[in-house]
Amino acid sequence: MSIGVATANSILLVTFANEQQAEGKIAMESALEAGRARMRPVLMTAAAMIIGMLPMSLGLVEGGEKNAPLGRAVIGGLLVATSTTLLFVPVVYSLLRHGKSNVDPESTPVSGEV
User: How far is residue 108's CA from residue 64's CA, in Å, rounded to a whole number?
Assistant: First the structure.
């Protein structure tokens, strides 16, 4: 579950950064803007999963103590995956893109050209 949520959140982040680069921003700016713009959806997704796993992790019902470690492991994985998505993915994205933008210089008109 943790890997699925982290992958979905990372895809959201990278897709937004690619859209920013298509508009002409360099990789670092794109990664920073993606982190800012997608922080709320990523945190909301993680929080919903964590809150949903709380009853399982507490093991309050009869026989729940058998499933409690699984709930705690999922919550820990979500916390690590969310911090990795928000911190590590933008850094790696900007390093792999090397400051390049996706705008083709031949396709942009030179000033004065129609």
Answer: 62
pTM of this prediction?
0.75
Cα atoms in the Cβ-side hemisphere of radius 13 Å centred on 70: 8
Q: How far apart are CA 34 and CA 50, in angstroms?
A: 23
* 35-59 pLDDT tens trace: 999 999 999 999 999 999 999 999 8
Residue 26, helix vs strand vs coil: coil
User: How far apart, in Å, are the Cα atoms of 7 and each of 4, 14, 86?
Assistant: 5, 10, 12
Locate 94 and state its tokens. Answer: 């900007």
Give the 3-state secondary structure of residue 87.
helix
- In the chain, the amino acid numbered 53 is M
Domain spans in the chain, listed from the N-terminal domain onward: 2-97
